[in-house]
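1st attempt posting a full record on here, be nice pls
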Amino acid sequence: MLLVGTRQGLVDLDTGDALVEGHTVTALAPGPKGWLALLDRQVLVRLEDEEVVTVDQLPTGDGQSLGVLADGTAVVG
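the predicted structure (as tokens):
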């Protein structure tokens, strides 16, 4: 899976599938349970078998970076 995040969404270049549309991809990070993405500086999602699952949401849209610890915990800065 080769992912590209843009201001318009998230695309898997291997398949050409648009996984997320209409949202800005702020950050991407690989994790033990799949890729995580921060959308619109606020919404944290996980990609599970090409399905996008919302994990959490920040109270304000000020997230800028994303990291994933070895146990799968997401850290947003």
